[in-house]
Amino acid sequence: MTKLDPKIIKKVENLRKEINRHDHLYYVLAQPEISDLEYDKLYSELKKLEEEYPELVTPDSPTQRVGGEPTKEFPNVTHSTPMLSLSNTYSEDDIRNFDRKVRELLPAQKIHYVCELKYDGVSLSLKYVNGGLVSGATRGDGYRGDEITANVKTIRSIPLRISYDKSSKTNCDIRGEVIMNLKEFKRMNDEKELLGEKIFANPRNSVAGTLKLQDPKIVASRPLRFYGYALHSKELPLKSHFESLKILRQFGFLIDQHAKRFDNIDNVIEHWKEWEQKRDTLPFDIDGIVVKVDSLAQQEALGAIAKSPRWAIACKFSSRKAETILNDIRLQVGRIGTITPVAILEPVKIGGTMVSRASLYNEDYILEKDIRISDTVVVERGGDVIPKVTSVIIEKRKSDCAIYSFPKKCPECGTNLVRAEEESNYYCDNSECPMQIRGRIEHWAARGAMDITGLGESVVDKLVSNKFVNNVADLYDLHKYKDQLSAMDRWGEKSVQKLLDGIEKSKQRQYHYVIFSLGIRHIGATVAQVLAEHFTSIDELMKASESDLQAIHEIGPKITQSILRFFSDSRNIKIIEQLKKSGLKMRNEQVALGRELAGKVFVLTGTLTSYGREQAQELIQELGGKVSSTVSKNIDILVVGEDPGSKLEKAKKLGIEIWTEEKFKSIINADKR
Ligand code: IVH
Predict the structure, then answer these.
(1) Are 161 and 132 in contact (CB under 8 A)?
(2) Which atom of ligand 1 sits closest to the CA of residue 256?
(3) pLDDT surpasses 90 at 389
């Protein structure tokens, strides 16, 4: 075997360090320093090197987070320390009782409590051996759980390698909770809905469902996060729980930033009450706080009864369910015409908030639960997720109320509603339906789509109802009406300018975002990316035939039909032509350029002002080109810097294509955008 160049080894190590640092900045500290594109570049550079030098791949390389083929079954593992559960308390008296028992068992000792948030997710146990993550397992029955290591490794807020101090090879078990942030949960569900897939009822179900998936690639695409709350290790000098949290943070884990240490139960109770009020300010769901005796020696002395420790309790918040009357069911029209039934409720207070509307999802949901107008229903609320009707109190049903029958016409425009086979939603098929016009523009502007700040629901409403825009392409002509807009009620010049700037900036969004933003039914962000890779321009996509589309692995008949249908509508073609004229990105520059440069042979001559020689060579190679040092008839392109030598003359004689540095730069930069 040839010996590896130490420079390559160093480069791979540095790339790994950089990627891990950026993962931590992004997923744990929420302070990213680089763009997604720059991150992707680092990642693909490492991936490429590892493919070239497979002997350099290590299990803790960031490229190994998503690996392996789908598993058939998860092996069962025994936890080295049992995963206990907590006894629940709901009242101040219960909490005082807990404190009394602790003091009785530890007479005359000073006691400190640590209060932590009680995450509403799924608990997980991680095992690190010699500093490397070796396994991840679910709680199971507390003694034995499922080993789901491949899935766990995809969670970016879980470090693959930890160290207590630089030299030590840490061995420990770490416990914590896997959760989903509410916003990310909602975005994921929206995308599922768009794809016609079944949506999850709440973040916790979604986490549980995701961790059970057999394909780590799908798990990797779900927005899971892990918060550490316990550290077990024989070799670390741990004295208190509070210290463990600090070490977990040092290891790179997310921990509860609001955790507090108190020396009396009154402050604990106050903390609990405070968080009951503040729970909605958090980005994720919690269902209480956990109170733990801080000293590990005291924890050991207190021990456990049955499956719960005597040194900790869960102080739960009051339930966020309530009973109320369902006064009516109204239909809401979404951006692609999806009809969503909404429950109009007799207003009821749930967890401090008045609730008068709740989600009913679709016709099947209503029929399965046999929800009828005038029924007494149970309504549940979690975080900032819209409340939902979860069940009916049948005993309270009036004798004369009829089974709900789904309306046949769109409430906005009167068009007949359609429900495709195997789909749970009804649609309004009139693309000129006023609600759809608004919805499409809102979707165009959304984060993850064209990302136009300042173009939310109320602004869209104003623009559409005042006839400034009728479709997404009109947004790019809006600058012509700047004065009229600024003169409008409660809209100053500054905010109009901000909106126009946001619209202008969106012209730089890559081609796959444009495809996604068009709002073609069943085309989520991921499918849009797949399409952009296969059809490198919108013209190619528009021309794609049924068999062209079906030939792509990720594209099934439902998506194919939806695309064909979208592009057969002349109104959509007109919008796309208008968008093209406005200068939006309508081709996959990376692939197009890659195709242009792949295999071409370059020679550089003269001094390049913007790049060093080596850097220019690397850039050409990255795009699939080759670099040669002498001009011959086998050369495709000569790049000319300042004071070129005799190579220029020779190239001219041979009729070789000549690029100025300016041209070279613009092509390279187009690739980076
Ligand atoms: S400590 C022996 N801390 O609540 C103590 N648990 O019924 C082990 N949970 O299964 C648990 N947040 O899934 C602890 N900050 C937190 C927690 C927490 C949520 C969950 C955990 C556990 C259940 C207890």
Answers:
(1) yes
(2) 15
(3) yes
Q: How many whole angstroms separate alpha carbon 106 and alpha carbon 98? A: 12
Q: Evaluate: CB of 229 within 6 angstroms of ligand 1.
A: yes
Nearest CA to ligand 1 atom 16: 118
Residues with Cβ < 8 Å from 557, sequence gap 6 or more? 550
Number of residues in the chain: 673
Residue 206 has pLDDT above 60, yes or no: yes
pLDDT tens digit sequence for 209-253: 999 999 998 999 999 999 999 999 988 889 999 999 999 999 999
Ligand 1 pocket residue status of 84, Cβ below 6 Å: yes
**Number of the ligand 1 atom closest to the C-alpha atom of 120:** 19
Nearest to 379 by CA among 370, 389, 371: 389
For ligand 1, the distance from its centroid to the CA atom of residue 101, given in whole angstroms, is 20
- Ligand 1 centroid to Cα of residue 86, in Å, is 7
**How do residues 595-610 score in pLDDT, each as one tens digit?**
677 788 999 998 888 8
State the DSSP H helix or E strand holding residue 241, giving kind and residue range, or none if neither.
Answer: helix 241-251
- How remote is the CA of residue 289 from the centroid of ligand 1, in Å? 9
Cα(159)–Cα(451) distance, integer angstroms: 30
Measured in Å, residue 211 CA sits from the centre of ligand 1 at 18
Active site residue 239: no
Q: For the CA atoms of 130, 132, 136, 142, what is the dihedral angle to 10 degrees?
A: 20
Domains of the chain as residue ranges with CATH: 6-64 (1.10.287.610), 88-187+198-316 (3.30.470.30), 321-417 (2.40.50.140), 434-589 (1.10.150.20), 594-672 (3.40.50.10190)
Global pTM reads 0.66
Q: Is the pLDDT of residue 87 over 60?
A: yes
Is 70 exceeded by the pLDDT of residue 669?
Answer: no
- Say whether pLDDT at 511 is over 90: yes
Among candidate residues 118, 153, 292, 388, the one labeled active-site is 118
What stretches of 148-285 adopt beta strand conformation (E)?
A: 172-179, 225-232, 260-262
Does the structure show a pLDDT above 90 at 476? yes
Residue 673 clears pLDDT 50, i.e. is over it: no
Q: pLDDT for 422-435, tens place per residue?
A: 788 899 988 889 88
Ramachandran sector of residue 303 (left: φ over 0; alpha: ψ -120 to 50; beta: rest): left
Distance 26 CA to ligand 1 centre (A): 25
pLDDT category at 592 given cuts 50, 70, 90 is low
What is d(CA 459, CA 482) in angstroms, rounded to the nearest whole number? 14
CB of 285 within 6 A of ligand 1: the answer is no
Is the CB of 123 within 6 Å of ligand 1? yes
Share of residues in the chain with pLDDT > 90 (%): 64
- For residue 62 the two structure tokens come to 């960031």
Choose the residue to mutate in 83, 141, 175, 177 for probing ligand 1, maximizing ligand atoms within 8 Å of C-beta.
177
Phi-psi region at 337: left, alpha or beta (left = phi > 0; alpha = psi -120 to 50) = left
Cα–ligand 1 centroid distance for 118 (angstroms):
6
- How would residue 200 be classed by pLDDT, with cut points 50, 70 and 90? confident
For a pocket test of ligand 1, which of 81, 123, 242 has the largest count of ligand atoms closer than 8 A to its C-beta?
A: 123
509 token code pair:
């969004």
Q: Whose CA is nearest to atom 12 of ligand 1?
A: 118
